[in-house]
Each structure stands twice: as structure tokens, then as C-alpha cells.
Amino acid sequence: MTGDEILRAQSATRRFGDFTAVDAVTMAVRPGEVVGLLGANGAGKTTLIRLLLGLLAPTEGAVELLGGPPDRAHRARMGYVPQNLGLYRDLTVAENLSFSAGAYDTAVPEIPVTLHDFRDTLVGDLALGAQRQAAFVVALAHEPEVLVLDEPTSGVDALSRAELWDTIRGQADRGVGVLVTTHYMEEAQQCDRLLLMAGGRLVASGSENDIIGDTRAVAVHTADWAHTFAVLNAADIPVILDGTAIRVPDTEPATITSALSDAGVDAEITPVAATIEERMLVLARSR
Ligand SMILES: Nc1ncnc2c1ncn2[C@@H]1O[C@H](COP(=O)(O)OP(=O)(O)OP(=O)(O)O)[C@@H](O)[C@H]1O
Questions:
Q1: Which of 22, 46, 195 for a ligand 1 pocket mutation test, highest count of atoms within 8 Å of Cβ?
Q2: CA 48, CA 66: separation in Å to the nearest integer?
Q3: 21 lines ligand 1 (CB under 6 A)
Q4: Which atom, in ligand 1's list, is nearest to the CA of 197?
Q5: Which end of the chain has fewer beta carbons closer than 10 Å to its terminal beta carbon, N or C?
Q6: Cα angle, residue 233 at apex, residues 232 and 235 outer, rounded to 5°
Q7: Where exactly does CATH 3.30.70.790 map onto the chain?
Q8: What's the CATH fold of domain 213-285?
Q9: ipTM
Q10: 7-211 in CATH: which number?
Q11: pTM
Q12: How far, in Å, is the centroid of ligand 1 from the Cα of 18?
């Protein structure tokens, strides 16, 4: 490990009773990089974040925030947007910003132009995109050195998503280290580096290509996509429906052809490179 890591987990494990939510995870984030944390629902992403931020104690292993224990003093130097945004829904946007500035003893941040019309609106009455934007303003107001974002763009429209990602990249460009969870693969592609969790473990890391490794997939072309999907699913083949396009990762083409011909389905199949989502499905099924 080098000395410039601002978030670090060393064999960090967190158990809840007999259940291991985070299992011996070693990872780090450095200044100026955007690290994407991927994994299916329940993979352990939020629990890992809570360990890194000192909101939960590891059962085993160690975590560090800005080179020290993730205590209150170190937490004051980071910005966190949790899944539930951490805003007071019964306060207005302006009141939330003032409250947070008071807590951090910093100047009240300017309200961005896109939120001007809502400065006196209760946060609970705002559309989700505006709520997320307000949560970003709060998280960035004290100029944090680390930014941790748990599904920051979930449920917002494409334009707001692009704007939030502009903000994330802008922060990294000024040297902030960012850890961001996402279920959107086009967002994963905007990260400098990816970490993939499954069943509490860190199962792959690196670039998109590193994560996909040598996993292959097959595209199944057929007019009768609904029936074809049902046939492959019933045969316990890992099938993915994307619109009306059918894809099958990590399965021999002969296995697919045989299942389809047994069911009398007329389809053409083409081997293709797998996507990250397909790799995630393969990993989740193998656990
Ligand atoms: N306080 C807790 N007590 C018991 N089990 C918990 C607790 N917190 C989390 N878990 C369990 O740990 C597992 C990992 O949860 P976690 O929220 O970290 O997953 P996640 O990858 O963030 O999922 P999502 O993408 O749905 O947010 C889940 O099975 C969850 O039910």
C-alpha cells in the first residue's frame, strides 16, 4: 500500500450475526480518481462504505479514512451522499444548506441556478433529481478531500445524471478521491477504475476489460423473443433480455442451440464479447 490512499480497507470483514455482509475486502481510493463500486443488490457495497466511513465497525480487519481512523475529525474532511440522501425532508433547500454549514462551521454555499426556484421548497416536496442535486451541494459545501456517493443518480433522468457526473468528474479533477456505487453500466464506464463485489467479497477489479476477463456471451437472434427467453430460462441457462434482444453469457453455443432446437425454436446465434453486467450475472450465479 502506498501512503497517498484516502480510503483504505485491509481484509475488512463485517458480520451481522452468522451472516457475513463484507468478507475480507482489501481496496483503496487515491486522490483524483473516480472508483466505481459495482455489485448486485445485497453484494455488500453499502456495508463496505459504512465501514470506510466509520459508521459501522469492522468485525475483523482494518479501515482508514484520510490516513487515520474514520472518526469524527476525519469524517469532517469527507463528503457523503447516502442512498437516502441524508437531507432533512421537512426543511427547505436553503435551510438544509444553512444547517449543514453550521454543522461543519463553513460558509453557507451558493444555491446553484437550477435550484434557485426551489430554495424555499421543502426537500420532501422536490422531485428526486432536485433532491439529489441539493444533496450534492450539501456534501461538497465544505470542500471535502474524499467524496463517497451511494447510487447518486438512482431514479433521476438522463440530463440530471449527466450533470451529476460532470460534478463528480470536476471534483476528481481538483484532486478529490471519489468512491461511487452504481447500477448503471454507462456510469461504470465513466469511472477510472472499478471494483466488483459479489456475496460480500471483492471478486474483480481494474478496467472494464479487466472485470470482463475472458467471459464470452452469445447473442440470440429470433422473432419469437418472449418464447425463446422462457425456454432458455426454463433450461436454467443464464439469459438476459435487453429490450427484445436476448443474450446468454458464459454458456457454450452448443448448449444453447440444443435447448432451443429441443423446444422447436428457430433462432440464429452469434458469439460476442460479454458486458460487465453479464460478467456480474455470471459471478452472482456462481456463488
Ligand atoms: N444492519 C444489518 N443487519 C443485518 N444484515 C444487514 C445489515 N445491513 C446490511 N445487511 C445485509 O448485508 C447484505 C449486504 O447489504 P448492502 O446494503 O451492503 O448491499 P448493497 O450491495 O449495498 O446492496 P444495494 O445495491 O441493494 O444497496 C444484505 O444481505 C443486507 O441484508
A1: 46
A2: 16
A3: yes
A4: 21
A5: N
A6: 65
A7: 213-285
A8: Alpha-Beta Plaits (3.30.70)
A9: 0.95
A10: 3.40.50.300
A11: 0.87
A12: 14
